[in-house]
Write a structure and sequence with these properties.
Order of helices and strands: EHEEHEHEHHEHEHEHEHEHH
Number of strands: 10
Strand content: 15-25%
Helix content: 40-55%
CATH topology: TIM Barrel
Structural class: alpha/beta
Number of helices: 11
Radius of gyration: 18 Å
Strand order of the largest sheet: 2-4-5-6-7-8-9-10
CATH superfamily: Metal-dependent hydrolases
CATH class: Alpha Beta
Shape: globular
Length: 297
Amino acid sequence: MPDQPTRTRAEQTEQGSRRDRSRPPAPEPLPHPVVDNHCHLDIEDGSWLSVETALAEAAAVGVPRIVQIGCDVGSAPWAVEVAERHPAIVAGVALHPNEAARLAAEGRLEEGLALVERLASGSDRVRAVGETGLDYFRTGEDGHAAQHESFRRHVDLAKRLGKTLVIHDRDAHDDVLRILDEEGVPDRVVMHCFSGDAGFARACLDRGAWLSFAGTVTFKNAGPLREALRVTPRDRVLVETDAPYLTPMPYRGRPNASYLVPVTLRSMAETLDTDLAGLCEAVDANTDAAFGGRWGG
């Protein structure tokens, strides 16, 4: 498949379409390379970058590697294909919890889960099962049972294949932890776009998780999230974009991409009152550990 976006933003309000959608300028390069461990290169959002351009612009500022996440029946195969063509990219595949609820309503959940298992077991370029988990923000109670079933099946798949489990958790902290405990925590777990406070951070850390921080950690109203960052041990911190979403301040609302990781990471270093180079080195090593070893790029 050619390097073309396969999806457009599902929800684009009229107000949002009038905002500045130009791409932010490139930041100063990092003193040590890091990985964007969660990106959606296939989603078009305002000003799309080709895969080659996205990789080149990210590498130019010290982000030479990316984990591409495919989390529906269209994007998961694309994630594997693009990872097989680009040594700098590895893939995660899953059914997003909202996708799981949608497929269940259509009677196609088993079909979707079977696709994820085929992809996850069929290529060594797939390092992760994810993003899976629970989302009570966009899916109502009628879809919770399907999300729970899908999450349990993804946990089992990650354990059977020895893949990293990447968890999406929105407004569902308690149930995410409960299901993890009931199913048994895989060896490697990443809390994607960590969204909890210091107490929830400690609960995730107690279960051996890495906590991945996105541009949300730079938002003015994100005090509890910054407290969560402060209690996270240095060897458990990751960074991501979730691009093209969650663009860090001062560019919030404009299209995000991996080349903006340095903006988030500098903010994190300030929050931790720590040396940027040392934090970059830790995040780089942590990403290799969290995703089963180093890959090329």
